[in-house]
Amino acid sequence: MGTDFILDELKGLKDRSLMREYRTIEGPQGPHIQIQGTSYLSFCSNNYLGLANHPKIKQAAIEAIHQYGWGTGASRLVSGNMILHEKLEKKIAEFKGTEAALLFPTGYMANMGALCALVTKGDLVIGDKLNHASIVDGCRQSGATFRIYPHNNIHKLESLLQRSAPFRRKLIVTDSVFSMDGDIALLPEIVEIAKRYDAMLMIDDAHATGVFGRQGKGMIEHYGLEGKIDIIMGSLSKAIGSVGGFIAGSNYLIDFLKNKARSFIYTTALPPSLCAASLAGLTLIQEDISLIDRLWSNINYVKFRLSEFIHTIAVESPIVPIVIGPAKDALDLSEILYRRGILIPAIRPPTVPSGTSRLRISLMATHTEEDINRLLDTLKDIGFLTFGNHKTSDQ
Ligand SMILES: *Cc1c(COP(=O)(O)O)cnc(C)c1O
Prior knowledge:
The chain is of the alpha/beta class. It has helices at 4-15, 55-68, 76-80, 83-96, 107-118, 133-142, 154-162, 187-196, 219-223, 251-260, 262-265, 272-287, 290-306, 327-339, 369-381; strands at 32-35, 38-42, 100-104, 124-128, 145-149, 170-175, 200-204, 231-235, 245-249, 319-325, 342-343, 346-347, 357-362.
């Protein structure tokens, strides 16, 4: 039978502890979620500020449905472009400190669309080894020559650029916060190098938006790099609590992407209610700095408590990886935690390099100290240190 390979491949995944399955969440997202009628403590959501179920965001979406209906019926360039798309783009540009912004249905599509529009055959795109899969897919799909430097290794990045003369255009692309490791890119150095070699610079601010910078504007605010990064990609699906992706940058960059980004052109516009929800999310962040403060006080508390028993983890963001090693061990540990009422799925290859399977803890502003104590005490109680040597995943 022609489809037998599917069964073989599934069995192979299962045998190597690499089979992926999801659980069904029965109520809204939050620090406590309902699965099969039981409450679990969730430490695996990108809903960093707890906005995914915020009353003001729900209200904004409901009102937008009343006023603008649900669907959009066409792509933006045909007849799907509505007032709320433009309002949201204006708000994103203001938030990111750029001239303009362009919405995409998802962050994945924003990366794909922008990368494939900006570079092609004859060009060079250079990325960090730990970049998100959507960047990797965009780089591959673009047709440009794609080179990778070891994680956060600025010298290797520079040596790749030293050999870049034959290429027409050059683009450096990096996560600003690395999604599976939680550490941050050395952006000031990368900005310098990009300038020196006349390369474009694109950052993926998915995990920094609403998290980094005093006002949550992202890694540019954190480092004070306003105006120094050509292409800023972000997602509305994480701290903003909604769905959607965007590119922020100059007016001419956005005009170019409107004309060239296939994942913008050939897809239906987002429902207006999603835009209303994102607008409300961004407004909440601007009006209530304490949301971000609460997230960081949880991050700092975990950092403090973790230092009691593991010394190799640098906590730099709400993403705290506990690297276990073999996929099966990570899966087993995740299962033990689940039986104790804590949801942290194991992150395994190909999401992370082989031998670095991990539990990726992610924190929310809405976790209480009691929630965090329960997680750490449970980890301690089950003696999870016996599961491996906590290698760091870099290099
Ligand atoms: C989640 C994520 C994306 C994709 O964003 P979506 O809006 O979920 O499609 C892109 N880049 C990084 C670094 C991410 O973590």
